[in-house]
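In response to the reviewer comment on reproducibility (Comment 2.3), we provide here a single inverse folding case reported in full, input and output, so that an independent group could reproduce the run without further information from us. The structure tokens appear first.
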């Protein structure tokens, strides 16, 4: 999927064949790196539905983290829900979240991350996506020196006892692969490395008018599946006046076979 392609949801009304829906979603991910799913009715489309829909198609990956320490645990589902008791975490705050990859600090992250909406915010809260190919194209025309640095200079990402050293952008036979989270950069980076990270952060943060960032507002029952290392994703700020005023479930999957698709 590139900037000229429309982002359209997969719509369905028949819930009787979850496995068939799961296959359709993964096929869309193979082609586009991103699949937005919108059922005709939200009732019945929850974690249990997706457990069944994905069972035959891949291995679920533990993706949950302790909210206080960031250390991973064995939870196959993680909640991304507004909680005023934890305003300092993106997972539970109402603030905008900058573009990133979830697996920046994980050596072997799940290939696909997915979000299932239980409750939408009163307003705002859209999930944002930027395809890696579009990022490389924009950097190549607007900041070629930054692109070169992001390809050749490794960064160190760390959280919850996990630590990975890798460049932000890798380009090979399997296309563009990304690893980026400004809030997971390790302490003690060399000043020249930190300067590269700051320049990328500024480029992404000011790029709404010149980067083909797609916006998906999930309503109750909706889901979005995406290749974590093929796209950057983030979130708009939102309004919620009570705990769980915006509530998403998050999961991870390693599909059977190759779903990474084209470049």
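Designed residues, in position order:
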């Amino acid at each position: 999927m590139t900037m000229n392609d429309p982002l359209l949801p997969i719509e369905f009304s028949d819930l009787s064949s979850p496995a068939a829906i799961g296959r359709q979603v993964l096929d869309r991910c193979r082609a586009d790196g991103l699949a937005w799913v919108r059922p005709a009715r939200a009732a019945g489309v929850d974690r249990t539905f997706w457990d069944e829909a994905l069972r035959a198609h891949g291995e679920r990956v533990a993706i949950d983290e302790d909210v206080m320490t960031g250390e991973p645990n064995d939870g196959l589902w993680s909640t991304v829900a507004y909680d005023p008791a934890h305003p300092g975490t993106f997972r539970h705050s109402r603030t905008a979240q900058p573009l990133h990859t979830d697996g920046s600090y994980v050596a072997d992250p799940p290939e696909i991350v997915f979000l299932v909406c239980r409750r939408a915010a009163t307003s705002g809260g859209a999930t944002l996506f930027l395809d890696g190919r579009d990022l490389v194209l924009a950097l190549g025309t607007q900041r070629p020196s930054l692109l070169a640095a992001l390809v050749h200079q490794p960064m160190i990402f760390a959280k919850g006892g996990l630590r990975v050293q890798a460049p932000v952008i890798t380009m090979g036979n399997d296309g563009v692969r990304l690893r980026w989270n400004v809030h997971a950069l390790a302490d003690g980076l060399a000043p020249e490395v930190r300067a590269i990270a700051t320049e990328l952060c500024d480029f992404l943060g000011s790029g709404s008018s010149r980067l083909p960032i797609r916006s998906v507002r999930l309503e109750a029952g909706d889901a979005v599946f995406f290749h974590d290392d093929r796209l950057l994703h983030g979130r708009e700020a939102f309004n919620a006046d009570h705990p769980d005023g915006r509530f998403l479930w998050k999961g991870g999957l390693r599909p059977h076979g190759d779903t990474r698709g084209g470049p």
